[in-house]
């Protein structure tokens, strides 16, 4: 009991420092291949993959870039312009292009779904959901690959989302639901049932927030929804709540480009005025071109990895910020909706790793 009480206090009293290391790279041989980064992903061994418009760049203590080769079409990278990437449960990388999908096992690239309609369509996003891989393609809704079979969820079909163009996808780790944003038809959630998935629309006040164009995971449950002018949090139990708008980040900040949540609950925000770290509505770090190695305030992409690095891409460089903090991760379960006195609160079936900070 005493250990439980101590742990509770530690979880809510850790201090995130404002100091740390800042490392940057510019495109070159032996570095990232391009600053036109479309997507970033991490495998279970900690390797970071960058989908760029000039090939696949991989970072694991050093840089390697794989380029497309016209004479190696069958087993090589099919196109230098990679739209989106995602690692699956087996550490295999899935890559989406302007026409079709490949997988990469570390040695060979393989075309997948060649008999599916998405093989000739633009791939907008790829999402891993346990053993299932989801693909948002063209104006034809969704496909997902599960237990060796492809399934197509048609736009406006029974139990499907009423949307043609799915722009991004994320998983709610508290409920297991899939949350989608669309280009013109709002935000949707997919709930798994015996027949597959049933989608329903999540009400968003577009007059207040505008069209929501992006969704990303929140490791603590729910999802983060955002566009250029607002960041929201959505959960089954609490609905939609606004987190931040650009003006609240300070003078000169007018646009949000990208958002992610670190494993210790910090919101990392890429803006036209640098990179912000936000915790409990307080700015704890602001990285701008005033810092050594950073030449541009336009932070286009952000990606916190499992080693504590906050990767970012600007118009002038790519790099990462590493806070001076060491963590130990412990497994906990997320309660989807807490009610005092209720011993039957619903729980996530998956353990999450929560960083705990210790002070001397």
What brief labels describe this structure?
360 residues; four-stranded antiparallel beta sheet; 2 helices; 30 strands; 4% helix; 44% strand; globular; disordered N terminus; disordered C terminus
Q: Would you mind describing this structure in some detail?
A:
With 360 residues, this protein is mainly beta. The chain has a domain at 1-16 and 326-360. Helices cover 4% and strands 44% of the residues. The protein has helices spanning 2-13, 206-209; strands at residues 20-25, 37-42, 48-52, 55-59, 63-66, 84-87, 93-96, 101-104, 109-112, 123-129, 132-137, 142-146, 149-153, 166-171, 178-182, 187-193, 196-202, 214-217, 223-226, 231-235, 239-244, 256-261, 267-271, 274-279, 282-287, 299-304, 310-314, 318-323, 328-332, 352-356. A hairpin with a 4-residue loop joins strand 19 and strand 20.
């Amino acid at each position: 009991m005493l250990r439980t009480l101590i742990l509770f206090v530690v979880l809510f009293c850790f201090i995130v420092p404002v100091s740390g290391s800042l490392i940057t790279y510019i495109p070159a041989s032996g570095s990232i291949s391009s600053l036109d980064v479309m997507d970033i992903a991490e495998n279970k061994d900690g390797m970071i993959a960058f989908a760029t418009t000039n090939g696949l760049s991989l970072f694991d203590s050093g840089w390697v870039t794989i380029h497309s080769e016209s004479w190696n079409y069958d087993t090589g990278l099919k196109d230098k312009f990679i739209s989106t990437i995602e690692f699956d449960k087996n550490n295999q990388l899935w890559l989406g292009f302007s026409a079709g999908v490949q997988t990469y096992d570390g040695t060979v690239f393989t075309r997948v779904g060649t008999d599916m309609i998405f093989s000739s369509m633009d791939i907008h996003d790829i999402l891993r959901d346990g053993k299932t891989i989801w693909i948002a393609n063209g104006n034809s809704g969704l496909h997902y690959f599960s237990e060796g079979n492809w399934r197509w969820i048609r736009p406006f079909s029974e139990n499907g989302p009423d949307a043609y163009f799915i722009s991004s996808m994320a998983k709610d780790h508290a409920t297991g639901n899939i949350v989608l944003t669309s280009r013109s038809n709002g935000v949707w959630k997919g709930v798994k049932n015996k027949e597959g998935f049933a989608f329903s629309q999540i009400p968003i006040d577009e007059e207040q927030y505008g069209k929501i164009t992006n969704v990303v995971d929140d490791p603590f449950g729910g999802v983060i929804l955002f566009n250029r002018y607002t960041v929201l949090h959505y959960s089954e139990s609490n609905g939609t709540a606004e987190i931040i708008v650009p003006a609240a980040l300070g003078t000169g900040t007018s646009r949000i480009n990208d958002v992610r949540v670190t494993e210790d609950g910090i919101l990392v925000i890429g803006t036209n005025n640098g990179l912000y770290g936000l915790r409990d509505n307080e700015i704890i770090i602001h990285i701008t071109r005033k810092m050594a190695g950073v030449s541009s305030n336009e932070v286009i992409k952000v990606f916190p990895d499992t080693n504590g690095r906050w990767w970012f891409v600007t118009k002038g460089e790519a790099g990462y910020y590493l806070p001076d903090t060491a963590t130990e991760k412990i497994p906990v379960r997320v309660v989807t909706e807490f009610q005092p006195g209720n011993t039957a609160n619903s729980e996530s079936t998956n353990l999450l790793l929560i960083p705990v900070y210790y002070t001397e």
